[in-house]
Structure formats: C-alpha cells, structure tokens
C-alpha cells in the first residue's frame, strides 16, 4: 500500500501541467503588475516626470557599403528552375 502511494505521488510530480497557470501574465497577476515586452530601457525618468534618453543605450547598427554588390535584397518566392551539371549530361 505505501509503495503504491509513493509511486502515484512520483507519477503526479513528473506529469506536466496542462493549464497555463505557471505562466504569469497581466491577467493572472495583481493589479499593478506590468510585464513589459522584454526590451531594455533607453534612458531614465526624471523626478519631474520627464524622460532622458541616453545615447549609449540606443542601438547602433553598422551597415556595410554595398555599392557594386551583385545580389539584390529581395529573394523571390518563385525561383527559376535551373539545370544542374548532372542533368545536362
């Protein structure tokens, strides 16, 4: 009897939860909970209600010079069928 009880408890502990109660969202949390969108702040709030943007926290994208580059930025969804060297022989 105790062995069956222990096996049942172990089986229940291993089973995954079917509901999403473990995922904390703003609907399942207290009123003042704000989850956000997982992005980093780009500045800080001042005492008088303003917001100061810090330039070091802004993303800096380095784009190479693409003059004379053969490929186009668009890739077609309907590619042209090309013959390979094996099919030509």
TrEMBL record:
Keyword terms of this UniProt record: Mitochondrion, Ribonucleoprotein, Ribosomal protein, Transit peptide
Subcellular locations according to the entry: Mitochondrion
Entry's Gene Ontology cellular component terms: mitochondrial large ribosomal subunit
GO biological process assignments: translation
Residue ranges crossing the lipid bilayer per the database entry: none
InterPro entries listed in its UniProt record: Ribosomal_mL41
Molecular function GO terms recorded: structural constituent of ribosome
Keyword Transit peptide: yes
Domain of life: Eukaryota
Main location: mitochondrion
Family: Belongs to the mitochondrion-specific ribosomal protein mL41 family.
Protein name: Mitochondrial ribosomal protein L41
């Amino acid at each position: 009897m105790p062995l069956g009880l222990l096996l049942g408890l172990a089986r229940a502990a291993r089973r995954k939860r079917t509901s999403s109660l473990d995922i904390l969202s703003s609907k399942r949390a207290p009123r003042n909970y704000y989850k956000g969108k997982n992005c980093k702040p780009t500045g800080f709030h001042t005492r008088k209600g303003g917001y100061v943007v810090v330039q070091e926290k802004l993303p800096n994208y380095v784009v190479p010079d693409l003059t004379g580059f053969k490929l186009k930025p668009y890739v077609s969804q309907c590619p042209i069928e090309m013959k390979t060297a094996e099919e030509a022989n």
